Amino acid sequence: MPRFALAVPLLALVPLAAQSPRPVDFQREVRPILSENCFHCHGPDKNTRMAGLRLDTREGAFSVRPGGSVIAPGNTRASLLYQRIASDKDAMRMPPVFTKKALTDQQKGVLKRWIEQGAAWKEHWSFQAPVRPAAPRVVAKEWPRNPIDTFILAKLEAARLKPAPEADRRRLIRRVSLDLTGLPPSTADIEAFVGDKSGDAYEKVVDRLLASPRFGEHRARYWLDAARYADTHGIHIDNYREMWPYRDWVIQAFNRNLSFDRFTVEQLAGDLLPNPTMEQQIATGFHRCNTTTNEGGSIVEEVAAMYAKDRVETTGTVWLGLTVGCRKSSTSSRPFSAIRRRSRWTATFPTRRLSSSCQPKKMRPAGRRCGPRLPTPGIARASIVTPPANHSRPGSRRSRNFSVLWTPRRNGSRSQRPTRRQ
Questions:
Q1: What residues have CB less than 8 Å from 220, skipping those under 6 apart?
Q2: Mean pLDDT by 10 residues, the chain (422 residues)
Q3: What proportions of the chain, in percent to the nearest 5, are helix, strand and coil?
Q4: Are 316 and 324 within 8 A, CB to CB?
Q5: Residue 303 burial by CB count (10 A; 0-12/13-18/19+): exposed, middle or buried?
Q6: Which of 24-32's residues contact partners 24+ apart within 8 Å by CB, and which partners?
Q7: How far apart are the first and last CA of the chain?
């Protein structure tokens, strides 16, 4: 009997659901196509928008035009968008020839399937409330040990892969130690885990690592990268600055398992809380981690604007999951999100007084008045914290760095000279 004869009846056993195309992801597959090829003429910029049509908003994409619906969910023939991108006539086909852009057959297929599947429109993920998804169905039901395993197994089965064999104990404790503390386990820890025959041996290892101070140090590294933490100013001669109290606050927050809402509030406005503690004020060091300068010739107003810009962009990236760079100017025509005026955000995170012209009276030239002071919010007072007594010991980094000092002259003027701290 020919072998291929068995294949025909076996195909009939394949579920119809397995043969149906997978749902098209709007954010990952559709929006990038529209953004690259359509948004210049049919997007947020009113200066380049044509025919009064917007494809970057739900209202515009599903609007009804004189010739019909721009997108008719489930019906490509009634969708003007698909008819224009699939047209054989140069005068009708979108994008227009003069743009030097053209959709590939694969991109046209994505848009076609998306419309046929109902044209589901999703907003940017950072604007969606988290929803616990239902566990997917899997074939090897005995493999998962917890709900997360089910999602992993579903992806493996979709790719026709099998889970790797279970790791031995020596390899397992190495993996979990590096993941939770960033450090390999000691020989004693390895042997203790290998010799522990109890049913919760692994859980005990995890609990011990979570209770270790090294856990907070390891997890804080990722957050401090997002907060642009540094022990130096970043420009000019890159002087040392005392930001370590904020670093220690982040480490302690992870080790205390501080709730994320408190973690957020205290960093953005800890000093504005009723009767704020020193720790809550230190937390606002998040907005003091930006690149700063001690250069005597810097323009105060320019530097203040750069600081505010940095704080707005960092806040948008870390807490909103999107860029706000297109809002560098309040006249920008590309408001990506509901934030319509960047100036509102800049006013939220103003800069502490930076003016070096407001020197003590005895340091100012005769007859010169103190210049205008910038707004002085309560944000980030924690940058002025007394360090440990041994922090300036001879030979330390602080004792070796250069600083710029203002010194008075006999004639009442002032000069700037670099002085090495001894």
A1: 247, 250, 251, 253, 254
A2: 43 47 90 94 92 94 94 95 94 92 95 96 83 93 94 95 94 97 97 95 97 97 94 83 94 96 96 95 94 85 91 90 65 45 54 42 46 37 36 35 30 39 38
A3: 45, 5, 50
A4: yes
A5: middle
A6: 24/110, 24/113, 24/114, 24/117, 26/114, 26/120, 26/121, 26/122, 27/122, 27/124, 27/125, 29/110, 29/114, 30/110, 30/111, 30/114
A7: 94
Residue 337 in contact with residue 322, Cβ under 8 Å? yes
**Alpha-carbon span 348 to 331, nearest angstrom:** 18
For residues 187, 188, 189 and 191, what is the CA-based torsion angle, rounded to 10 degrees? Answer: 90
Which residue in this structure is represented by tokens 């998804």?
A: 133
Decide: 421 and 399 in contact? Cβ < 8 Å: yes
Give the residue from 283, 284, 231 showing the smallest Cα distance to 253.
283
What pLDDT does residue 64 have?
95
Place of tokens 């010991």: 393
Task: Please check whether residue 136 is in contact with residue 149, taking contact to mean a CB–CB distance below 8 angstroms.
Answer: no
Q: What is the model's pTM?
A: 0.63
Partnered with residue 404 across adjacent β-strands are: 418
Q: What are phi and psi of 143, to 5 degrees?
A: -75, -45
